[in-house]
Amino acid sequence: MALPDRDEVDGVVVQLAAAVDGVGLPAVLKTRRLGYDGKGQAKIAKGGDAAAAWRSLREVPCILEGFIDFEREVSVIAARSRDGKVECFEVTENEHRDHILKTSRVPAKVTPAVATQARRIATSIAKAFDYVGVLAVEMFVVRVGKRHSVLVNEIAPRVHNSGHWTIDGATVSQFEQHIRAVAGWPLGKPIRLGRVEMTNLIGAEVNEAAHWLTVPGTALHLYGKGEARPGRKMGHVTRVFSK
């Protein structure tokens, strides 16, 4: 990717300053592409230097996002078939550590109204894009007066880490659902098999794999990666409990 010339840089700095005026600080500057697990992000504190944050991201195209006061993050894994039918898995509650997904729990601790809204939004997005396959929609649960609502945080057009619980915890996994959709087969009706908790094994935590093999009701999934670097997802475990 070619870096912008000086006139383009000056223009972006002006745009970024205007964005900061509109969004306010603190904020997060994110690269438009190739960002994940906290990579491709720069936090801009109050009184911080937005242009320096952009330079730290190698002056690539970015998006500025304001901070949201949210109660929890949830996601919906949705699948849309070629004929337009959409099936959503149950709303998943996600817990992050150091900007990396650590644990996903199903069902999420949200009201039925919020769960319905979240699934409806995911369905609308899949239909609006005329999408075929599985996608994930991440959302923040926020309080609006005396009620709760959701704000879309991210759309991942693929199977997603927060949906790995479906491999062992539902009647159809997100991976099978994706194949069904792109192959033109009927989508499965996803039914949760119990209360489910999926935990990522990050970095050296993969060395605990033998322990998880001794825990009843636990499924271990290792990704076959060589080096267990800090922050690298090496596998996950899923525990299914009775409803």
Brief sketch in words of this structure:
The protein has helices spanning 6-23, 50-56, 112-128, 166-169, 174-183, 209-212; strands at residues 27-31, 41-44, 62-66, 72-80, 86-88, 92-97, 100-106, 133-144, 147-156, 195-202, 218-222, 233-241.
Task: Describe, in plain words, how this protein is organized in 3D.
The protein has helices at residues 6-23, 50-56, 112-128, 166-169, 174-183, 209-212, and strands at 27-31, 41-44, 62-66, 72-80, 86-88, 92-97, 100-106, 133-144, 147-156, 195-202, 218-222, 233-241. By secondary structure, the chain is of the alpha+beta class. Strand 4 and strand 5 form a beta hairpin. The N and C termini lie far apart (50 Å).
Indicate the topology.
Layout: H1 6-23, E1 27-31, E2 41-44, H2 50-56, E3 62-66, E4 72-80, E5 86-88, E6 92-97, E7 100-106, H3 112-128, E8 133-144, E9 147-156, H4 166-169, H5 174-183, E10 195-202, H6 209-212, E11 218-222, E12 233-241
Antiparallel strand pairs: 1-2, 1-3, 4-5, 4-6, 4-8, 6-7, 7-10, 8-9, 10-12, 11-12
